[in-house]
Amino acid sequence: xxxxxxxxxxxxxxxxxxxxxxxxxxxxxxxxxxxxxxxxxxxxxxxxxxxxxxxxxxxxxxxxxxxxxxx
Length: 71
What we know:
The protein is mainly beta. It contains no helices and five strands.
């Protein structure tokens, strides 16, 4: 889905540049039992090795990231 913030792009990588494979999504979840503003999205990754993965989410207006420790 695209809106005034632009399409959502998602990527994950290790500090050495190794990339995870995005196998699902991003897909918007239209319904949620949690009441809060904003959109809810789902993704699926295959992480080829353990490590501290940086998952980056970007839109035309705004960006963020989360670090995941994959064991």
